[in-house]
Design goal:
3-stranded antiparallel beta sheet, 5-stranded mixed beta sheet
């Protein structure tokens, strides 16, 4: 009888232990995820594939985050949303962040998409060692060139119509738009900034410093899950494009599947660090120093911005 009682106690203990183990295993998924609002740099497109995938594949959820992905508009920019507390994090270029920080707006980089510059200058004439955004203005200052600047937003029609002789373009965006529009380009009519001493990292994810100091763990988990999203995208390009087009159609972005495939491929290429030949998703101290120095020399900022300042150290 004593042995039977002991067996019952052991069975109950094992049952309790099994239930407790199962509960602990499921607990992270049962806990309410913390909301994290992220605003991209532009309308839905393949440039943001890693974020979409981290959302759709549950990587953010696994990290305990309920990530809401927003897209800005011409009337409500990403930076305006950050300033007015409508979002927790935004995407912007490193040079934009350096500019804002130098003005006293405390931003911190929590994730870096780009390892290389996508800036190119497309002209109607050949370029022979002449160095004609931030990069173009820096070049104009350093090379003492004489341009008449015409600012226009997200459209290639002004250039195609012949109203201007050259235009700044991104290698993953307007460059392919010009190709699809039938504009004939040769390497002699294109100036690639990254190949001529102006290779500066571009887009990263930034938060206000106060938010960073009080939400370091959330920022870390967001960065880790986003990196996982990009790595999955690189390993599964076809399925990644299906997810991208799902967002493109949902938000009625004016584009097409061919354009998005080209953008996706080029975005992945720009993520490869030239020295390590790997996707590192980090801010390079040398590029922060280089960007800050060039901007200071060109009179675009009043003081230097350091790597430690940019990364919240």
């Amino acid at each position: 009888m004593w042995k039977q009682k002991t067996k019952r106690i052991v069975r109950r203990f094992n049952y309790t232990l099994t239930v407790l183990t199962l509960f602990l295993w499921l607990a992270p998924g049962l806990a309410k995820a913390e909301q994290f609002i992220f605003t991209t740099a532009w309308t839905a497109q393949a440039q943001f594939a890693g974020y979409y995938i981290a959302k759709e594949k549950g990587f953010y959820k696994q990290a305990g985050l309920d990530v809401v992905i927003q897209h800005p508009s011409l009337t409500s920019s990403a930076f305006h949303r950050l300033q007015t507390a409508q979002t927790n994090a935004i995407m912007m270029s490193m040079m934009s962040a350096i500019d804002f920080i130098s003005q006293g707006i405390p931003l911190v980089n929590i994730f870096q998409d780009s390892m290389n510059s996508s800036n190119i200058l497309v002209t109607r004439w050949e370029i022979f060692n002449s160095d004609p955004s931030y990069m173009a203005m820096i070049m104009n200052h350093r090379e003492k060139m004489n341009f008449e600047w015409v600012r226009f937003t997200s459209n290639i029609n002004l250039f195609l119509s012949g109203a201007v002789d050259a235009m700044m373009a991104l290698s993953y965006n307007e460059y392919y738009q010009l190709q699809q529009a039938g504009f004939k380009m040769t390497e002699e009519s294109i100036y690639r900034f990254s190949e001529n001493g102006y290779n500066i990292q571009e887009n990263g994810v930034y938060v206000m410093r106060d938010y960073y100091l009080s939400h370091r763990d959330e920022c870390r988990r967001f960065a880790e899950a986003t990196r996982k999203g990009w790595e999955w995208a690189a390993a599964h390009p076809e399925e990644a494009m299906e997810i991208v087009m799902k967002y493109v159609h949902r938000y009625n972005s004016p584009t097409n599947a061919v354009m998005q495939k080209l953008m996706f491929k080029e975005t992945l290429r720009l993520q490869i660090d030239r020295d390590s030949k790997r996707r590192e998703f980090r801010v390079r101290p040398d590029m922060v120093e280089k960007a800050s120095r060039m901007m200071l020399e060109s009179g675009m900022i009043k003081r230097s911005v350091t790597y430690k300042e940019l990364t919240g150290q």
